[in-house]
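Researcher: Please translate sequence to structure tokens.
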Amino acid sequence: MTAERTVTPPGGVPPERGFPPVSVIHPRGAGGGLRLPAGRRTAGRRTAGLPLLAADAAAALTAAPALPHPLMTAPLLLAVLCLNARAALYRPAAVPAVLDELPAVCARITVSWCALAAVVAALSPAHALSVRTLLTGCVLQSAASWTGRGAVHWHRRRTLTRHPAAALVVGPAATAPRVAAAFLRHPGCGLRPVGVLADGGAGGEELPVLSTDEEAQRAVIQNNVRAVLIVGPVGEHAPLLRKLAAADCVLWEVDADLPAPERAGDTAYDEAGHTPRRRSQGERIAGFSCRRLDVGRRPDSPAKRVLDVLVSGILLLLAAPVLLVCGVVLRVSDGPRVLFRQERVGKNGRPFTLLKFRTHRPADPHEAATRWSVAGERNMSRFCRFLRRTSLDELPQLWNVFRGDMTLVGPRPERPYFVAVFSQTYPGYAARHRIRTGLTGLAQIHGLRGDTSIEDRARFDNAYIDDWSLWQDVCILLRTAATLVRPTGS
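Model: Translation complete:
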């Protein structure tokens, strides 16, 4: 690869609107590392929704004359802004269009007016809003909001067309250059690829293919890249993507596959109800279905840790008699060393010691580290089989959760030997270790425990991480408790 290369559309057609050639490799001798201008990009993204917020505020003030008292404007304005913020209506779309969001905006305006009318009627029946006032206010505010938001979106689309944001495409060499070429043919989408980071060879003569993370970092600095288009599995480039996200680049997951009738509604994600396109608001950019990856809401938040400490602490107290009984019975029936300690791989590949009730005594350390399952062990006592079938042997891991080695909900921890094997065999398996491993998880409540598909487990675990919310943790814990009523063992 030469010291400097340019991106041109397929067929050698000059770039539209006179875009200059794009340098994707820094001159030799320049310092490496990812050093983006501190604060500049973050501040721009934080203020991107202010014009929309101002438009909604002006719309509420426009409808204020329909109210019987000017003081009612404040709660109306607050309600509309809060509802719109909760619906992410102040997070501009990649290609903004006022008609796409009009139903959501009008619905929240209507809800705000109805809530205000209910409160006024309850507190001061003499000033209750009439049906005519409600209709007039809703129509006036909806029209004003539509006009203001339309002006904001028109200005932003014009700016994006004239000055599209530089983007880096990351993905397999077979598909990433094709996606980059498609974006170049549609400058109105607001994103202009400046390079492709792919494994496995060059992707074409017109589009540059970067082969290392160092080259990609230089391209990001040189071209002020503000977006990353992720096509398919990223393989060893996951650390780079985390750096780009930390540098406030917007990450877009691009679905480059054509729709297949046999895939419709027939994937493990569909069965789980956690398909990314269903759970988050996908967008169409250059004809591709794209999903913005929200890296700010990670499952290592303080709220998750508080939930872990509270629930594990309470369960340890409540389960203390059960732990004592299990320990005594095991000591009497199977001899000393009631607890089984084993090294497992946790967050970011760090090892920790996992605790379980001992239900099997391996012949040697090698067997303990490399034997996949002992569920069919014939020499296991009846009580040990009962512990495994009811998952009571996992109870000591509550102490791992309380200590912070594990979390209540997350990917199940595995031994170092199997982590090394599975990481090389199954794409996405290593990405499970972005967070602390858990006592239960999305994969487990869908029956993926014991001798089941590792590929499916990795897919469910990564889906949980990508779509994490505290409420999802609560739901998984409740569903785990329900499965204990019909135990299957491991």
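Researcher: Any highlights?
Model: The chain has a mean pLDDT of 77.
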